[in-house]
Amino acid sequence: MGPSSKEDIASLIKGAATLNNEEVQLDDADRLRSGPIDSLVENAVLNDSPEIRAYCRYIIKKLALQLGIIPASIQGLYDARGRGENKGYTVPALNIRGMAYEFSRSIFRTAQTLNSGAFIFEIAKSEIGYTHQRPHELIAVILGAAIKEGFVGPVFVQGDHFQINAKKYHEDRNKEVSGLKDLILEGLQAGFYNIDIDTSTLVTLDPEEVKEQQRLNFEVGVELTQYVRENEPEGVTVSVGGEIGEVGKENSNEAELRAYMDNFNEQLAKINPEYKTISKISIQTGTEHGGAPLPDGTVADVALDFDTLENLSRISRDTYKLAGAVQHGASTLPADMFDKFPQLETAEIHLATDFQNMIYESAHFPAELKDKIYKHLHSEFPGDKKPGWTDEQFIYKTRKKGFGNPFKEDFWALPEEIKSEIGKELEAKVRFYFEKLQAGGTKDIVAKSVTPTAVAPCMDNELKYAQIY
Asked: 384-403: per-residue pLDDT in tens?
């Protein structure tokens, strides 16, 4: 049984930090890293009491700020890139689906080794649902990992694909938009100061005029960006991402980019000329989230349109002063492709499925737990199996849902030696991506362009969101 009171928590971290209700004072950073931080993180996620979960999250965030670990917006770096002040690298954005603590620690270890500052932790709206990780929980885990590994500096955490569901939008516009605003507010209050708004689902190719194809995309995108600007903390300019092509659909083109950006900027300026526009633009170049599995469970090769990626990145910088274009659905691409992204000045690349696959396919992952998860997926999600799919294709596409309940505690309860070995495997792949994307050595350019604002956590918000799971 875990701690059940604030007094228990104070005893748990005695010698590392002193607690007096909402006052938190760091006493010994080394002692904190030696064990208490692990217990704080685990209780921030798994404790039966919402009050204890909230308190642990609050403590972690307070201690992180005292150690110079600050949730931040990457806006300053992307502004500098849009002005042509730095180039030659692509920012890796890593989706934290499973084994969040070990994975986050592996990312911070890599950043320390390679002197990297330009990297992003992220979770998509859909991932929040099926992994059962709300923003306040996940950011506490990430900051706990930073404390554990001795990382100091801005930490960029991003809401990925904060997406409008087109079907639900057309059934009840206000309900769908309101629901996404609620998630945006939750993210902002947690410390997600980078938010990718995805209204590309509303693009329709029926009208002949490109502007009309993109109309709902830029109109709803502006409304949501306005909401971000109205609710971002004082001293923080949230980095907002836009999207013109839904991943897995038709490849993007210049006319779409210009129609979206021109009208987006015009409408946002009418609301408030002081409002910052988006910092980057996500486009479709031929990839599919998670890759396209073949009948044997391997992934099909992708004909990625590098010309489109290079061209739209250039236009977005030269004309609109954005950081550039963003590549989604990339982690299952062939290894020899990754050198090209920094060469083509791709601003950011999103990496998720490869790490998920590594966890499940690791020789260290318990076969018994994997079998239990796979059986659960077959019984609970039979509708996810498309006609003609083999079991291997179904499992490949569906096992991402195994990270949440009812197996979330099983992942946290894995023996330390197993978690450590899988963490080392994840770290090796993180390092591969950082090196290929030229993300190493970026700590200095981040320091020059990003001045993070320390935003104190709010205990009332921690309590509010700890009630949700």
From this structure: 999 999 999 999 999 999 99
Spatial separation of the C-alpha atoms in residues 107 and 120, rounded to whole Å: 10
CATH of the domain at 306: 3.20.20.70
List alpha helices for 70-195, DSSP H: 75-82, 100-114, 125-131, 135-149, 166-171, 173-190
Answer whether residue 83 is part of any domain. Answer: yes
Check whether residue 177 and residue 62 sit in a common domain. Answer: no
81 near 324, Cβ under 8 Å?
yes
Non-local CB neighbours of 367 within 8 Å, separated by 6+ positions: none
Per-residue pLDDT tens digits for 315-349: 999 999 999 999 987 777 888 899 999 999 999 99
State the helix-helix crossing angle for 173-190 and 210-231, rounded to 10 degrees.
Answer: 40
Q: Which two tokens stand for residue 446?
A: 């981040």
Taking Cα atoms as reference points, which of 297, 289, 264 lies closest to residue 279? Answer: 264
User: Whole-model pTM?
Assistant: 0.96
How many independent structural domains does the chain possess? 2
Domain with 120 in it: 72-359+410-453
Q: What is the maximum span of the chain, computed from C-alpha positions, in angstroms? A: 68
Together in a domain, 189 and 317: yes
